[in-house]
Amino acid sequence: MDKLALLGGEKAVNIDVKDIFTWPIVNKEMEEAVLSVLRTGNMSGSDITKEFERKFADWHNRKYGLGASSGTAALQTAFYGLGLGRGDEVICPAITYWASCLPLFSLGATVVFADVLPDTHCIDPDDIEKRITPRTKAIIVVHYAGYPAEMDRIMEIAKKHNLKVIEDASHAHGGHYKGKMVGTFGDVACFSLMSGKSFAIGEAGIFITDSREIYERAVAFGWYERHNELTLPGIVEAAGLPWGGYKYRMHQMSSAVGLVQLKKFPAEMEEIDQAMNYFWDNLEGVPGFLAHRPPKGSGSTKGAWYASHALYRPEQLNGLSAARFSEALRAEGFSCNPGCNRALHLHPVFNTLDIYGDGKPTRNAFSDRDLSQLEGSLPVSEGLQSRVLSIVWFKKFYKDIIDCHVKAVKKVVEHHKELLEGDKGNPEGSGNWSLSFRR
Question: In the chain, N or C terminus with fewer CB closer than 10 Å?
């Protein structure tokens, strides 16, 4: 193959990529839907939102949907809907975005982190069982980067220990686990719908459930203008003011976009799946750079492949660092960065920070033991940054463009020994805890 671009050669991706990475895909119907909301002054209503909630829940064959101002708000209200509160422990994977668990602190509940599986990056069911105590009330499952978690095992564990299950499906819209849609296993499932997600409608979120009690408790918590929907004893008597003091309704311009997205998303998802699987099919057998996708024929899918990743195995490339490999790929015109979400259990907010002035770290505020999980306690999560790459996410099946990206990977792998000289290794603190700060 040609000389590496990093060392003075020509780039492998040397053609116009067109709109293969453009997202979301905005059409005329979406624009008209937003303009209609604006022209009628119906931004703060709920009629369009309720229609979207109904159709989103129907898509998943669930009884109730509740649209929120963000995925974070959907998660917090789902936690409240489940009755999680002071002293309750909830198990969550350490590799995820902070919103999967941090809202627990606002309710007086706390988080216990579990390790993840090295090839799926989803929560390890064996590690879940090790962390269950009499205070454990629920398990948060994250279908990380669209890879469906091992729901059979997780639901067995939950049933055995009488635990609630929250699916954070914010990465996995439309994905399946063994032929069944993610978001349909747990007591409640939450989705971020912000503009970067695969099902993108704006800054919004939603949760779905089959439980009327979870739904009504959530409405009572942050949807005061919908308290006329409350019916259950113990809830309806205190209607009128938001119990949590929050105002979490979804903006109706987002709801309007969501109704259009429900129509066109399946076709978009199918094309993304075709493109990403074509990419990976053409890289089968290439050492060091492995697919992060469910096995073929398993009935499990990644939906629209949000936050596409590759498994990186430096031992197959003479120890070449993920940072150096990524640098070489970027020089070829292939977007790539080492790492993913950093392990949350190592951040001060989960160890030393007293957020609410309780006189001790918030994580331990209502616990009778120290829940800190220090460095070395979750080895897979802590070692992941050198073994995963954040890579391109194709939105269109443009064969020639994808072929150039395949060529780039093969080129770098073939010439990887030339990169060993000058390899400074992986920088300390690869990956991100958030979107705005790296240390």
Answer: C
DSSP secondary structure of 139-157: EEEE-GGGPPP-HHHHHHH
Q: Is the model's pLDDT at 1 over the cut of 60?
A: no
Q: Is 417 tagged catalytic?
A: no
Place of tokens 């992986």: 426
DSSP structural state of residue 105: G
Task: Return d(Cα 393, Cα 318) in angstroms, integer.
Answer: 27
Amino acid of residue 211: S
What mean pLDDT value characterizes the chain? Answer: 96
Residue whose structure tokens are 């020994």: 417
Q: Please identify which of the residues 11, 137, 197, 395 carries the catalytic annotation.
A: 197
Q: Between helices 28-40 and 252-281, what is the axis angle to 10°?
A: 160
**Spatial contact of 173 and 54, defined as CB atoms under 8 Å apart:** no
Task: List all residues 6 or more positions away from 114 whose beta carbon is below 8 Å from its beta carbon.
Answer: 91, 92, 93, 94, 123, 124, 127, 128, 130, 131, 378
What's the pLDDT tens digit per position in 55-105? 999 999 999 999 999 999 999 999 999 999 999 999 999 999 999 999 999
